[in-house]
## 1
Amino acid sequence: MKVNIENFDRVHFIGIGGISMSGLAHIMLNAGHIVTGSDIKDSYIIQKLKDEGAIINIPHNASNVDGANLVVYTAAVKEDNPEMIRARELNIPTIDRATLLGEIMKKYKYGIGVAGSHGKTTTTSLISVLLEEMNYDPTVLVGGEVDVIGGNVRVGKSDYFVTEACEYTDSFLKFYPYIAVILNVDSDHLDYFKNIDNIKQSFTQFANLVPKDGFVVACGDDSNTMSVLKNVDRNIITFGIDSNCTWNAKNIKFDEKGFPSFDVYYNGVFIQNFELSIVGKHNIYNALATLAVCHLLGVDIKSTPSIIKKFKGTHRRFEFKGTLDGAIIIDDYAHHPTEIKATLSSALNYPHNRIICIFQPHTYSRTYSLLQDFATSFDNADITIITDIYAAREKDTGIVHAKDLAKLIRDRGNETYYIKEFTDIVDYLRSIIKSGDLVITIGAGDVYEVGNMLLNFNKKAAIGA
């Protein structure tokens, strides 16, 4: 359903506390719309929106919709939701989150959609920070918390709009990108897509949304991405490390904290040396994509190294949480085998004695369809703890259990434990942690609470002392 959002003065968001939904609500508030919303539980994101003037109720209730001219919902909201039923009864137009985002994006001359199976949040954030620092005044919607822009959304007054473009349920096919970024293409969201060929087909459609005078910025080192490009008739800019691309990183080095430095070449000509304050080889790719995009928009790349170096990443992306008895606590959002391997590979370059990994699988369908790949993802961890699967939008059908994954990892000869309760994980960690250990909580659910609980216990012990 296509809508002119200017025609709706009162917009209701079902699931307003989500990272993307809250950002859209902020943009609509800023544009002068009355915003109402609901969610299943309160959060600091919801409190922030209330402070900005949104009217939000907990939990979902049919009466919350009364008075709305337009209802926006997320993929997690089903037709039996009481607010959806009420909207249908009142003949209130309903659209999904992606449709609203696309309609907002359409209003900007230069829309940048950052797609890819991995790295979207970091790359979107880095592009946004660089454009802001270079006075491009972009509007930004990102799937994570970025300190530099004060959260997950920034409303600018220019023609530039930067957002993540998620492939799940083909959401990104409702967007209007002038520049489409494809970081990588991998098997994921197999509860929606049939297979990798189906996924590549969607990315091809996304790339072809770009107008003839626009650009596709794509990773030349990723075979699936290059397969996608075979069916794309647009201006293509590539970036990579191993292959000959428009933008290349060479002479890569890692310092004692695991932060990379590298020389950047554009069409074979040396541009500048860059240093990152975020770990991992994968972030070199994210930085190259950022430079390629910003160069297309007219940014003087030679003036950006200091901005790039200042970027400390987004929350929940190899985020330093604190220390406990000389051990370092890190949290990371990785929830796909490729991402976990990248995170633990980054950890190898970080000072440590042992790597202790606590992983919370995300959704039953992903865990089941990629079970064997997950099993091979933890080889760089000295100790792995698996906790229960975070259901998210799904119900437990019994098709897979976290114990199944723990067994497969253990069968590879890796020290692995299944522990159900977070409190028991904390107790176990407190019994084994030594100075110099690197403890990493990994997953897209609420596994970060394990790190918080560890650090809070440390604070309480200090107070008691």
Note: The two ends are 62 Å apart (CA to CA).
## 2
Amino acid sequence: MTTPSRRTSLAVRITVVCLAVAGVAVVVAGLVAARLVNSASRDVLQQSLAAQADVLASQFEGALPIQRLRNGQLTKVVRGQGISIVLQRPNGQPVSDDPLAGRAAVKAGLTESAARSQQVTVDGQQFLVEVRSVGPGATFALVQPAHAEDLTLRKLIRNILIALGIGLLVAALAGFVLGRVLSRPLRHAAAVAAGMRGGRRDLRVPIEGPAEVAEVATSINELADALRYSEARQREFLLSVSHELRTPLTAVNGFAEAIADGVAEGEDARRAGDTIQREAQRLERLVSDLLDLARLGADEFRLDLTGLDLVALVTDCAEVWRLRCAARDVALETLVPPHPVHVVADPRRLRQVIDGLAENALRVTPAGAPIVLALTVDGQARLAVRDGGPGLAAEDYPVAFDRGVLNQKYRGKRPVGSGIGLALAHGLVTRMGGTLTAGPAPEGGAAFTVTLPLAR
């Protein structure tokens, strides 16, 4: 037997999702910001270098004394910022204390005697170069390594990490609070469901939270109402069945005691034996119906479907019920087509349905009123069992096939059956691919109509 894995709570999952979203958002924003800041800082450095080059160029307009430019006060200030000065000799050779800076200046166009701003790479290192011309053959360049922007980038990364930590902390708190708020209605629903499992039917879930959570609460409340209604119906059904069982059992027990005690002798004993046999058959039929109804929805309940002539089946059934109806002074009429009507059904189960409907009709039909077995064909075969009894109220027809409903309503007012016959008949007809409906009959009572598709 496998142990079910422990599931994480909704609050934990929401917190993790919030953390993931916050982390991704901060990282993506940091990467974009780093790229923008890196580009912007390089532009700022380039502009600052250009401004300093312009200042130097203005000081030596028209001539470029090499010694003065290399050792002047402005030069010292520039070099103090990590900027190299590269001069061009009259012979075109660059003069610089840093060979890499000299190569960078030449690569940037120092020898072309024209002002320009360049970003060049020498030996894998990037340099910012500002070239200025102060006269014929008098050119200099300011060269600054681009790594000066690394400090800004490192500060940015540090700030991004700080923001990431703060964002994750806020996301964790927000996710935890949000998870608790969203899961609270679900916890209430779970508590109510646990109470329902323990037999409580008076518990209800508060309708709160988002629409989806409120829908879950509404469904659980509707389920609780349905369970309470179903269990009430089940109790009523069991009460009606127990009543139906108790009546024949009482008769069997009473007459059996009379025979055993010698109270019933001779003709009385024979009548007692007939009563015991009749009530035992009634009990057997009731138990059989209960078993059939219980098995009806199970996979092992099998039907022997075959082609049959519905006219012949109705005629045979009428022969049996005509005698029983005559004994009650009830006229049985049979209306069938003059030709065979072929359907696919289980003959035994279909006969059971017709017998059950006819028995119900005879139970409520007064002397002198008719019972009609009417078979019609209109693309389908329709067999109606109609009676001239008191009929049903309009609101009873939709629930006529629910177990015990009619028994509960009419018990004590008119003869009723066990409360399972119509439910069983409806289940059998449905399993055979047909329908069973109820409605008023032209004869004044009720009509129960079995509809089956015609055989091809």
Note: The chain has three domains: 10-152, 211-295, 306-453.
